[in-house]
Amino acid sequence: MKLKHKPEDFKVEEIPDREFLDKGNYLILRLTKKNYNTEDAVQAISRKLGISRKNIGYAGTKDRNAITTQIISIYKGSKERILGLELKDISLEYIGYSNAPVSLGDLKGNKFIITIRNMDKEKKIQEKKKIPNYYDEQRFSGNNARIGKHLIKKEFEEAAELLKKDHKYGETIRERLRENPNDYINAIKTIPRKIIQIYLHAYQSLIWNKTVEKYLEKEREQEKIPIVGFATEIESEEIKKIVEEIMMEENITYRDFILREFREISLEGNNRQLYQEIEGLEIGRLEEDEEHPGKNKVTVKFILGKGSYATITVKELLK
User: Fold this and answer.
1) Whole-model pTM above 0.90?
2) Rg of the chain over CA atoms, in angstroms?
3) For 46, 57, 80, 140, which has the most beta carbons within 10 A of its beta carbon?
4) How much is the pLDDT for 125?
């Protein structure tokens, strides 16, 4: 089985969770992109327009190796200028205006159209209504979770050493440390805040996955599992025991999620649905895979709630 053989095999469209106006301080646009993750696309737009990155908001992070469509907001953006923008593999379409920026979580869910390739001839796809809501591997790509753990544990030198290897931000980190060899915190702060949050959330997600894996060793029906943060309170004694055993193994405490060095970043904690519902599932017919002779391909369509992973869904449907 192969996913994302090419961007056209993996299409995502956000389902917004807000209304749009004819006037407002924030121009709302539909961003369609490929070969960019969301943050890189937004930074490319801000550079091209010559505006602050902070003036652009979005609701969800979308992958690079896909064709994705999502809403963004631009503070006091010029409709004519923005719609005339030319950037490779990025297009912008006018939707309306709003009196508030688009921010993380401002969506109901996502529609997916996915072509699964390199399938064995006898492989079947099962119809399922819900599956465990695990975070998938793209959440932990590279050293994301390791960097997040070092930041949580205030091991800033170790975090900076890993960040120095990053293809995008590594040179900035190295340059800052050449000027101030022991100023690891400010070197890390040269990275955009949203990227730092990605590292921290990756580590929280790793703990959540480990918690769910242990919890599901028996048949369970608990609706939500905590995403650990400094204000986490767990009612279920069983889940609390599992979480605290994992935290002991990781050598962390709840208070470690207070990052005084990065005050603008809050890791209070939250809850995440244990299961994800699969809506509108459509399974196409098996066809010859022209990219992999002797193998099959199939296209599936479905809708997931925000924060759930289509790649996890496909893996579960193929089990």
Assistant:
1) no
2) 21
3) 57
4) 84
